[in-house]
Write a structure and sequence with these properties.
Blueprint lengths: L1 H24 L3 H26 L4 H7 L4 H21 L5 H20 L1
Helix pairs in contact: 1-2, 4-5
């Protein structure tokens, strides 16, 4: 179940990732941020809305019996948000070590998702 969701997420994110890399190379940071925000809004509103209109989602089952407890996902999301905010406030740009730290936390999250 979680493997198929990850494949779909990867397939929908790769074009946006490629576009963001091109924008980074052309020194267009506002385009990258707009791409990320727009992608999240479309995924939440359009994809989730269409999915729910086809088959309603039982939140009790997902939260407690899903591949990984949703509360663990929320904790990871909050940790990454706080770290990113802190990194952005301390310097004018993110360093490679900060990027690697964020990527490592994400990989730990993905690993835990597949294990549980």
């Amino acid at each position: 179940y979680s493997i198929s969701l990850s494949i779909v997420a990867l397939g929908t994110s790769l074009p946006e990732l490629a576009t963001s890399f091109v924008a980074i190379r052309k020194k267009e940071p506002s385009f990258v941020i707009g791409n990320i925000v727009g992608s999240n809004i479309i995924n939440i509103v359009l994809v989730l809305g269409a999915s729910i209109s086809i088959a309603p989602i039982n939140l009790d089952t997902i939260i407690w019996n899903g591949p990984m407890n949703v509360y663990v996902s929320i904790v990871f999301c909050l940790i990454l948000t706080v770290l990113l905010y802190w990194f952005c406030k301390t310097e004018s740009k993110l360093s490679r070590s900060e990027g690697l730290m964020l990527l490592s936390i994400y990989l730990i999250f993905i690993t835990l998702t597949f294990i549980y």
